[in-house]
Amino acid sequence: MTADLTRATAAELAARIANREVSAVEVAQAHLDRIGEVDGAVNAFLHVDTEGALNAARKVDEDIAAGAHVGPLAGVPIALKDVLTTEGVPTTVGSKILEGWIPPYDATVTRRLKEAGLVILGKTNMDEFAMGSSTENSAYGPTRNPWDTDRIPGGSGGGSAAALAAFEAPLSIGTDTGGSIRQPGAVTGTVGVKPTYGGVSRYGLVAFSSSLDQAGPCARTVLDAALLHEVIAGYDPMDSTSIDAPVPPVVAAAREGANGDLSGVRVGVVTQFSGEGYQPGVLRSFEAAVAQLKQLGAEVVEVSCPSFDYALPAYYLIAPSEASSNLARFDAMRYGIRVGDDGTRSAEEVMSLTREAGFGPEVKRRIMIGTYALSSGYYDAYYGSAQKVRTLISRDFDAAFATVDVLVSPTTPTTAFPIGERTNDPMAMYKADLCTIPANLAGNAAMSVPSGLSDEDGLPVGLQIMAPALQDHRMYRVAAAYEVARDAALGAPVISGVPQLAGVAR
Amino acid sequence: MTSVHELMDYAEVIERFDPVLGLEVHVELHTNTKMFCGCANVFGGEPNTQVCPVCLGMPGALPALNGKAVESAIRIGLALNCEIAEWCRFARKNYFYPDMPKNFQTSQYDEPIAFNGYLDVTLDDGSLFRVEIERAHMEEDTGKSLHVGGATGRIHGAEHSLLDYNRAGVPLIEIVTKPITGTGERAPEVARAYVTALRDLLKALDVSDVRMDQGSLRCDANVSLMAKDATEFGTRTETKNVNSLRSVERAVRFEMTRQAALLASGGEITQETRHFDESTGSTSSGRTKETAEDYRYFPEPDLVPIAPSREWVEELRGTLPELPWERRKRVQQEWSLTDAELRDLVNAGAVDLVTATVDAGATHAEARSWWVAYLTKEANARGVELAELGITPAQIARVIALVNSGELTNKLAREVVTGVLDGEGEPEAVIEARGLKVVSDDSALEKAVDEALAAQPDVAAKIRDGKVAAAGAIVGAVMKATKGQADAKRVRELIIARCS
Ligand SMILES: [Zn+2]
């Protein structure tokens, strides 16, 4: 019964809770129990809010008993990346500098989840300030990949992805600045969506790179991701960059796609994303996925986006530049840890000592890169040029979307790599986001859906589907159709292949 | 820390150098809410009571632009004859300071909302001087630091510091002039007249409290000198903390004499920030620009660009009130004032007050005589601005009416006004409380007149002989007897009637 509850999809759970077949409290408790059983081995959670979750679940049960109208995901448990503020519940962003900080306010995403009756189980682990592709940069220890606990779960949202793959939660929220939702989704065999920039409010999302950050849904199925997408998306006056337009009809698109017909849909394969540096098993999985899309009736063409080759360097100027400014507020004056305030030191010295002690090496590296790139005399060459590349990338997307409905590529060049393998090689680590970064720079929608396992190592591979801005529903339709065909071909969902986790208690 | 400055005689400064000014004025808008959040924008609240996650720079918080602040910025730009940008952005000015919650200030950098304007400034002799405006841009104010302990009250050497973030995020407009040249010896006067004109303009626009004493209008004065034969501007200093109109003038004059002495002795001017000390009238060195930071400006990614439509700009142009100089011109014509009379009125800062008093029923001559002649002296004596004196144009108009109806003498009227200024309430209440009503009951007056005539029979005889001038002595006696509460004119009439 309990295993049944943790393996169910969010859509199934919501239906069973609404029918009063099972209570939201039972569902929450089953997941809390599961976290207690396996999270010692996975370390997906930084904070489990047992009391808050059970209270929220109880409220949903009461509402349903009273005959109140509840939302389509009411009572469904969810794990929240620790980058979104939660009133009264610690938010660390994976950093020592915010250790012990209890936000006085909810992020808009948090508020919308609560209003929709979702049950927030806790906060998930992440690379510090979302800077990383492996969750090894967390100040609170790495998260492990449920497929192989010696391997990384991707990053920065490794906790949110691992929680899904470990059946600790049916849904989670991630944030994606350069691939932090999609790459973890790919290497854990789960679905991760980066909505159109501005589609989901950033209010309460602790900023890494303001012009790139985007929160999005993570789930084990395309439909679940779509249901969650519609809960969190929509205009928010608190976020000036949020788009004042109707939410793309992603749930309807996912349901339509599940019919398995993609005739009339034009799919573009990005030619830049293959070749050297790509694991052969990943490319084979990708080719198989493309073949399946053709079988579903899609028209597949190759599309060249030459400026995508410059996306990575442009990203590593823009994101650190914005980060160097966004992270300046962590100065020990108002919140977070304070180091060296012994009555003899100036405020400036305390700021400096706190930042020295509170930030990890990757965060410091990026603050330094960003500070340099914005410096007078270097601005035009670095930040300025990177912004020009950004424009070129947007033009490549525009040109591509003039001829195709969606673009596809592998989500990330390799499967999950062993913990520790790239920690001393930042460039190798940065390449994990090679295919995901262009969509962040251009601001359009993109997602990763599992495309099976790599034949050489048996680890999950992700198919990236990209759509134009505010056309998020296009990729959901394709992903849902592909998901049905893939499961039919494999005989079971990819996620069912996750090995049993050793019962290491938290 | 005291430093002795060598100063050059002012006349010699002017003989040898041409001053160049640049004035940067920060104006706090009096919008209901702050620039980027919904917190109340009110001066003087308990520390840290007007704050929220946004203006405290909490992790995750984002700015949302106050549309009213943009509207005010555009109106200011239009009143300063500026062009209004069709598209502009905010930028981040990055530097660390404890009273700045995000450690960057959201400001406009190379894309100001208004630029290329001018302000015609009236000098003390009534002549006009045109000050060119470089730009007017929007930004947010910082919080306030209170440094406790240490000698200077500055962060350096303080034992500890207290932070109040109520002011953090208050909307500011920074108005920057182009270099002001050609003023010669009138540079200090031009500086003061410019800030005065700007203050009056902003007041007329009703966009700010423009209270220099409360910091809602703050002026930084850039001053440099060029030798008479020089072709390039000299090195400038920027004097901050210049918090009254008089200080603006003094600070400019002081810097001119200080810089001149330094240059004349072969020294070099350090490009630096200087602090103005009200008590000594001198400036002292702050941080030098050598150590000044690189602000690493870049476009603010949390805000979308501002693109005011031309229709909106024109609509706002239509909301501009009669501007101070237009009003002055109209007032001079309507009231047939001489240039000197207008100048007195303007210099007293009394145009609004006199106009309002006239609107309340007085004649402009009566109103001017009160505000320009009498109340200006009272304001000086009490060390406050005329408008802050604590008496309204309506009250003055009522006092004038009481004088005209004979219920108050001029002397009594001044006493009533003093009572109002001393906080004793409305004029009527002061009259009541102090018993200041004119004795207008003729029978009571006649009795006093008869007594006075009886007491001074020789004077009475002179009057009866037609020497009317002698009546003065009897008037004086009656006034004394009635404790000054009689109308002297009426008393004189009664005396003459009694003696004829
Ligand atoms: Zn606020």
Structure description:
The complex is a heterodimer of chains A (506) and B (500). Chain A is built from 17 helices and eleven strands. Chain A has 506 residues and is α/β, with parallel strands linked by helices. In chain A, strands 1-3-2-4-6-5-10-11-9-7-8 form an eleven-stranded mixed β-sheet, with helices on both faces. In chain A, helix 5 links the parallel strand 2 and strand 3. Chain A is globular and about 70 Å long. Chain A starts with a helix and ends in a 16-residue tail after the last helix. The mean pLDDT of chain A is 96. Helices cover 39% and strands 19% of the residues of chain B. The longest helix of chain B has 20 residues. By secondary structure, chain B is of the alpha+beta class. In chain B, 41% of the residues are buried. Chain B has three domains: 306 residues, no CATH class; 82 residues, no CATH class; 58 residues, Arc Repressor Mutant, subunit A, CATH 1.10.10. The radius of gyration of chain B is 29 Å and the shape is elongated. In chain B, strand 12 and strand 13 form a beta hairpin. Chain B has 16 helices and 14 strands. The chains are: A alpha/beta (506), B alpha+beta (500). At the A-B interface, helix 11 and helix 12 of A face strand 8 of B. The complex binds zinc ion.
